[in-house]
Amino acid sequence: MHDAPLLQVDGIVGGYGAADEILKGIDLALAPRRMAAIVGPNGAGKSTLLKAIAGLLKPKSGRILLDGGVITGLPPRGIAARGIAFVPQEANIFPSLTVRENLEMGGYLEPRGKVAARVDALMARFPILAEKRRRAARTLSGGQRQILAMAMALMVEPRLLLLDEPSAGLSPKAAESLFDGIAAIHAEGTAILMVEQNALEALAIAEEGIVLVDGRVARTGQAAALAADADVRRLFLGG
Ligand SMILES: Nc1ncnc2c1ncn2[C@@H]1O[C@H](COP(=O)(O)OP(=O)(O)OP(=O)(O)O)[C@@H](O)[C@H]1O
Ligand SMILES: [Mg+2]
Q1: All domains of the chain, ordered by start, with CATH?
Q2: Residue 42: nearest ligand to its CA?
Q3: Angle between helices 99-106 and 112-125 (to 10 degrees)
């Protein structure tokens, strides 16, 4: 049978202010070390779902569990401390700080002694960050910024990494290189839940796929099977 889920989302309903039912009852589960891609049309609620998991949005009803323990209602910092790291789509780096300082900011909740070792490990993992360590983050290319944002999230050695549209705005070549980096992080054992507009590329590196439409899970399954499914392609993947 499957591993007990790392993440379990049970009947999450929530939204913003008066629009409090953007998510209309979301159920999903992710086993440890697995990767799922969440795809679906604009406005489906993909970012809203990641915000709910990260604790940035308090659901109206439903529960979110990590390792079987309820995390719904915990503040974002409490959720981060339990091992969930979130890379939002925008404003995910500090442009005026150097690359090295950005990595240190990613580890601000970590014990002092651990930070330097993690910075070194991540620079070894992503050599471009070592090369640019003294440069202001604003001087990086779009793809390099996304690598930095992800590396900042990895400073805390999360068990679950939430990525919101990491390839948005990147050239096909930069996106491909970023997806290689994400696949490598996953191969090293981090569970990943990734929202992506580049649906086929995302499904190609994920094990599972989740199609979100109008605040509901429309389809789930093996990523490769979803990517090959004629209905899914026609309705959700534009081809
Ligand atoms: N801060 C907010 N306040 C009010 N409504 C919001 C807010 N953020 C998003 N919404 C609304 O919630 C719905 C879902 O938005 P969400 O950003 O989760 O969609 P998405 O699937 O991530 O779309 P996209 O592919 O465009 O990123 C949309 O109708 C959007 O207008
Ligand atoms: Mg979004």
Answers
A1: 1-83+159-239 (3.40.50.300), 90-157 (no CATH)
A2: 1
A3: 130
